[in-house]
Amino acid sequence: MKRSLFSRILITFLVIVGIVSILKWTTHHFMSGDDQEVAVTNKHTILQMDLAGVIMNGKKFLKNLKDYKDEPNIKAILININSPGGVVGPSQEIYAEIKRFKEETKKPVVCVSTGLMASGAYYSAAACDKIVVAPGAMVGSIGVIMEFANLEKLYDWAKISRYTITSGRYKDSGAEYRSMRDDEKQLFQDMITEVYQQFRKVVMESRKLSDEVMDKYADGRVFTGAKAVELGFADQVGTFEDAVQLTAQMANLGKDFEVYEIPKKKKSIFDFGDAGEEDSLNSILQGSKPSAKTWVKDLVKVAMPVEMLNQPLFMMPGYWEK
Questions:
Q1: Cα separation of 115 and 234, whole Å?
Q2: Are 125 and 206 within 8 A, CB to CB?
Q3: In angstroms, how far apart are the furthest CA atoms of the chain?
Q4: Which pLDDT does position 109 carry in this prediction?
Q5: Whole-number Å distance between alpha carbons of 9 and 23
């Protein structure tokens, strides 16, 4: 009798899960992509986009850029940045897609930061037509960093012996259970140098800076907003409202315009346990609630950012130490 009751409960549960999954799929299928309604009504609209937190994949930003790209009422984009940077590839992708947007639409794009615009975030901002910063904002940190952890002594203390079987000499380079060889250090240094040269070239060309300025200041240091403008790494000292007015001026909107901020997606029962396109790490750093199935993993990331180890980053140095 108990087994029969358990079977009925289990079958009922599976049926409910199946129905919810089908409803969620159909809702996403019919409401996503090109079918998503873009509620921009004013004929003279500045689209406000946010680039905040650690740049891990950039999916949400890139999707919004694509969704609103062909909206005729949008005459310009203002990107509000508050980020210490992040992973190299996504930062470069955001930069490339902002450039593509400008080339294909001929619409101005302005970036503004009243807080933090460093490393990968600054790389992304280099694609904008103008960069506006508060005088006390933290800007720059042009450089690349890789972090490694050597837990060899910890493993010895815990009497844990780790080893790997690899197909090549460098397959386990950066492993936390042993010291790094000199040839491995050189391998990673060459990688960092190559990616740094990519960063340097983008900044120098987009900001029209000389080799002398880049040699002196593109060494990972962080500037105040006022200093960044003085040196040519930003265009104008100002507030968010100043950036709005500059964007409207560049788009020839006069005084009759509105700033449209992309609405946050409302969660429903169908989104339970789904992190979607949000960076889970970003969601914690910005105060949002992570999904039920990832919160433990996310907390570990914040406490000890192991996901960031062993890969080149456009990340503001010392960010994790706060």
A1: 14
A2: no
A3: 84
A4: 96
A5: 21
Contacts of 305 (CB under 8 A, 6+ apart): 281, 320
CA 101 to chain centre: 18
The distance of Cα 135 from the centroid of its chain, to the nearest Å, equals: 23
Annotated catalytic, 171?
Answer: yes
Catalytic residue among 113, 119, 283, 291: 119
Report the alpha-carbon angle 15-18-21, nearest 5: 150
Contact 98, 124 (CB under 8 A): yes
Which 3 state secondary structure label does DSSP give 202? helix
Which pair of tokens denotes residue 169?
């000499």
Q: How many CB atoms lie within 10 A of CB 209?
A: 17
Contact yes or no for 119/85 (Cβ under 8 A): yes
Q: Rounded to an integer, what distance in angstroms lies between the CA atom of residue 304 and that of residue 318?
A: 13
Choosing from 171, 216, 265, 293, the catalytic residue is 171
- The H or E element containing residue 51 is strand 45-52
Which amino acid, residue 49?
M
- State the pLDDT at residue 166: 87
Catalytic (active site) residue 119: yes
Mean pLDDT by 10 residues, the chain (322 residues): 61 64 53 50 84 89 90 92 91 95 94 94 95 95 87 90 88 88 92 93 95 93 95 95 94 88 66 47 46 48 51 58 38
Radius of gyration, alpha carbons of the chain = 23
Strand runs (DSSP E) across 227-297, as ranges? 236-237, 258-261
What is the pTM (predicted TM-score) of this model?
Answer: 0.76
* pLDDT at residue number 293: 47
Q: How far apart are CA 117 and CA 141, in angstroms?
A: 9
